[in-house]
Amino acid sequence: MAAADPTPEPHVSAVRPRFYQDESYLHGFLGTVSDLQKAGVLQDVVLEVEGRRFPCHRLVLSAASPYFRAMFTSDMAESRQKTVVLQGLDAGMFGDILSYIYSGNLHVSLDKVQPLYQAADLLQLDYVRDTCSSYMAMNMERSTCVDLYKFAYVFSLDNVRKACLRWMARHFTEVASSEEFCGLSLNQLTEIISHDELDVKEETTVWEAVVRWVQHSRDDRLHHLPSILPHIRYNLLTSDDTAAILEHPLVREDPGSSEVIKNVVQRGASNMKPRFGIGAEEMALFIQARSNRMQGINPRLEKYFSCSLAEIPPIVSATVTSDNEIYVLTAKSKDQLFLLLYNQMKGVWEQKSVVERLPGLLCHQYLLAVDGHLYYFCCDWTNPPQIITLKKYDRNMIEWQDCSQLKTNISYMEPAVSNGCLYLLSSTELHCYSPKEDRWFKRAPLTDSTDMFWTSIALGTEIFHSDLDFTSVSVYDTDANRWQKLPAGKSALEAEDRKYRANLFVLENQLHVYLNTQEPEYRQVLVYDRCEGVWREMDVTLPDNLVWICSPVVARVYLPGVLGRCANTQRTADAGDRAV
What we know:
Elements: H1 23-39, E1 45-49, E2 52-56, H2 58-64, H3 66-73, E3 83-85, H4 91-103, H5 113-123, H6 126-138, H7 145-155, H8 158-170, H9 172-176, H10 186-193, H11 204-216, H12 218-221, H13 225-228, H14 239-246, H15 249-253, H16 255-266, H17 276-279, E4 280-288, E5 293-298, E6 303-308, E7 315-320, E8 326-331, E9 336-343, E10 348-356, E11 363-370, E12 373-380, E13 386-394, E14 399-402, E15 406-408, E16 414-418, E17 421-425, E18 430-434, E19 439-443, E20 455-459, E21 462-466, E22 473-477, E23 482-486, E24 501-507, E25 510-516, E26 524-529, E27 534-537, E28 553-558, H18 559-568
Parallel strand pairs: 1-3
Antiparallel strand pairs: 1-2, 4-5, 4-28, 5-6, 7-8, 8-9, 9-10, 11-12, 12-13, 13-14, 13-15, 16-17, 17-18, 18-19, 20-21, 21-22, 22-23, 24-25, 25-26, 26-27
């Protein structure tokens, strides 16, 4: 008898199932919903705000906002009503909110950001709330900073409050003289004057601000003076200044105020740190990529420091913002760069973001500050036409955004920042990048020069340029789109067999040039006398180890902090002593 055939195995297909996602559907769905809203189709509820009626879709509102989801999916009376009246909202702001819900687009401006935040907070729209918060933190000015600070204080917006504190600390004298300053609460006032980074040259400025605040509403505020006085840093005052405060009518009128001051002074005020402004000096910073060193010099004050930056990755480029923030790009790897911010009061570097390194075999990498924003760009000179790639750092979103590229046949271009724009200069071409338009424009080139552009620096609306040896100096007027020649420094030309490397910088609102050479004894700093049209050599002893292969950036430097770093490496100068 024949054996039965074995049961055949089931067929297993070699084709595996796949998951598909229709991107066009995802992006087009919201547009379709917006079209339905505009056409007034399928709307099933009317929201009334300040008497203004807004026909809407319950489903869309519930999907966008937890506030509406709870309203329409619970046993609340509103879930059954055809018309729902909303309280505590501005009709105009709600119209903007509704536009965002149906389109995803949000228009924010300084005049309406606060009521827009309040509406988003009530309706639990996290994106709108976070966007408004970031916008406030990044868009402060003298006329709004105190108001934004008070708003942030009420709504517990730590990022906005801290940003306002930093801004007010940097501009304390101006802020303290404003009418808005007198409207601060007691706690807000003491938080501000307790800030280590107050940019004041004398502690008496803080005391005068306190007097102004108390006198603005003397009867209501005088009794607060004893709780305010401990925040004055008496160790930063002279004995005469302290005596004058003790004799002030406000102090003499309140019995407890004199005792507070005497007790603080007797304790020695040992816990009171210096203010930023009292220890800060404007300096030219040489942040050297090859050796990872930061050196600073102020020739007029004859102050100098040098310290190692060995704790951070190799430096690629450095810049200083208009708010006196010192940033560096460092090479985390061959593919990524770190963006670091220098905390001057603590003397430490803080990581802010990571950016993908722009491509190119032979590239010049730059970090520049333009109109309060950071830009990272790369010039790839490998093959013509050369491509200049630009990225903008959005501090609101903590991300890098791509900007317009520039194609050029020039082998080298020197950057400069003026008038809120980025300029790239060469001996035959001049290009200007407008951040507002995200566009490049050609401007008038320096047509009568064949010298290689080596160093450029902006002073106001003018950009100054020098060749490598400081034999040719030109200035470009960004408003007039016109060039003119300036005299070169004669002392640089006296030794024809000596090779100089010029580095232009602007210090204390004056144009300087640092003339480097491998022979330290011949190095010098010149300052340009615009009235006389001549370069004058400064009588200064330059340190032998001052770097000569990088251009300086200029910042106000908190010397106690940076010299504390030097103490851990090689302390070369004291804040009050002559350099080296």
